[in-house]
Amino acid sequence: MRRMCLAFAAALILPAFAEAAAAPPRDVQFTMPLEFIGEWNQTLSDCGTGGNDSRLRVSANSVRFYESGGPIKAVVRRGAFEIMFITELSGEGQSWLAAHRLILSSDGTYVTAPSDAGSALVRYRCPSR
């Protein structure tokens, strides 16, 4: 009898846990926030040319770096100016998942991409064309 009660309780409870585990956290988005969308480059004179390997093109659903690009899988916001996003990149015959962190300046004119090594790459918002 006890074994049957445990089995019955498990049948009621486990699906609820499985459903909760399958749902993404509320702070995860699947599109890029509007203020991060656009072309970003380390040198403004290289905007629109593809001539600088620091180029980053961001749309609502994908990112494009100099030699790789792909769809955005998840975006997490931390405050008004910081995001971490996961992309499924492909380039040069390979594909991989990558996490990227961007910090938007308070005036929206540049983003900083900090690295784990302590350095940071600053990219400036390119003018709309």
Query: How do the strands line up in the largest sheet?
Result: 2-3-4-5-6-7-8-9
Low-confidence stretches: 1-20
Strand content: 35-45%
Residue share in helix: 10-25%
| CATH-defined topology | Lipocalin
The rough form would be described as: globular
Radius of gyration: 20 Å
Element pattern in H and E: HEEEEEEEEE
Could you tell me the number of beta strands?
Answer: 9
Given helix and strand content, the structural type is: alpha+beta
First-residue to last-residue Cα separation: 73 Å
Summed up, the domain count is 1
Average pLDDT score? 84
Q: With helices defined by DSSP (H or I, 4 residues minimum), what is the helix count?
A: 1
- Secondary-structure arrangement, i.e. CATH architecture: Beta Barrel
Report on this model:
The chain is globular and about 45 Å long. It has one domain: Lipocalin. An 8-stranded antiparallel beta barrel has the order 2-3-4-5-6-7-8-9. It has 1 helix and 9 strands. It has one helix at residues 2-22; strands at residues 28-29, 38-41, 56-58, 62-64, 69-78, 82-91, 94-104, 110-114, 120-125. The chain has 129 residues and is an alpha+beta fold. A hairpin with a 3-residue loop joins strand 5 and strand 6. The model is unreliable at 1-20 (pLDDT under 50).
